[in-house]
Structures are given as C-alpha cells and as structure tokens.
Amino acid sequence: MAETLEVPQPPVEPSAMADNSYNIRPNFKDKFRPAVVKEAIQEVVNAHLNNKEYDPEQAPAWCKTITEAVKERVKDLGMDRYKLAVNVVIGEQRGQGIKVGCRCFWDSDTDNYAQHLFMNDSMFCHATAFGVFFY
User: Within a 13 Å sphere around the CA of 107, how many CA atoms are in the beta-carbon half?
Assistant: First the structure.
C-alpha cells in the first residue's frame, strides 16, 4: 500500500488574503466621477500637446502616449473596480468641424465617461475615457 506524504503549507498572513467582495454597486466615493476624470484628461493632454505643431508622422505616437498616460492617471484616482477604455484622436486643424459619436451598452447607474477637446492653431485632440464597473 502506498504511503501519502503531506507537505506542510506555509502560514498565510491575513493581509495577503483577498477579501471576497459581493458588491454589485460601487460605493459613492468609489464611483466614476466624470468631472475629476475630465480634469485628469485635460492635464495630460495639455502637458503633452502644449506648444506643439501638428505632425502627421508623430501623431500616431502622440495618440498612443496620451492614451497610456490618461489610463495611468485615471487608475491613480482609485477607481479599482472599473475597467477603463481610453480613446484619443489627433487631427490637423484646417477649420473643419469634428463630430465624434459612440454607442455603448452599459449600466447607467455605475458606468460613465469623460472627454476633453484640445485645440490649437494646427491641430485638435479629442480624448475620451470610459469607465465600466466590473461586477
């Protein structure tokens, strides 16, 4: 008959264990706050694009950099249970108009978005951050 060998497990500290969370709605202080997120987007976009001229070769890299920076800045706001989607569009300013639309299927009680439009003499930048609560 085979003998079983039991390997002792190291003790798990209570702080290392994750608590189960059965929250189906965020607390008021943890909700996606569009006004705060809009300020964060505005700070990031202005920091990256102030005093720059439109360059079609650099615009894709700027979009990627701004997208990542906005995502990290919004994560730092402490909305842990939210999935974030950030969209940035940069185009040349030639006096034309721009219309941006989106359609989403979400819970209007918990999910929201914030956007910011930056314009100077040579370009425009439209940045949007969507926050969808993760149940």
Answer: 12
- 122's CB contacts (< 8 A; 6+ apart) are 53, 54, 92, 93
Q: How far apart are CA 120 and CA 108, in angstroms?
A: 34
Please state the pTM of the whole predicted model: 0.80
Can you read off the two tokens belonging to residue 132? 């969808």
**Residue 14 pLDDT:** 58
Helix (H) or strand (E) holding 61: helix 59-75
Kindly tell me if the per-residue pLDDT of 57 is higher than 80.
yes
State how far the Cα of 129 lies from the Cα of 135, in Å rounded to an integer: 19
pLDDT tens digits, 93-121? 998 888 888 888 889 999 999 999 999 99
Please count the other Cβ atoms lying within 10 Å of the Cβ belonging to residue 26. 19
- Mean pLDDT over each residue of the chain, to the nearest integer: 88
Q: Produce one character per residue of 45-57: b if its CB has 16 or more CB atoms within 10 Å, e if not.
A: beebbeeeebeee
- Backbone phi and psi for residue 129, each to the nearest 5 degrees, phi listed first: -120, 125
Give residue for tokens 């994560």: 75
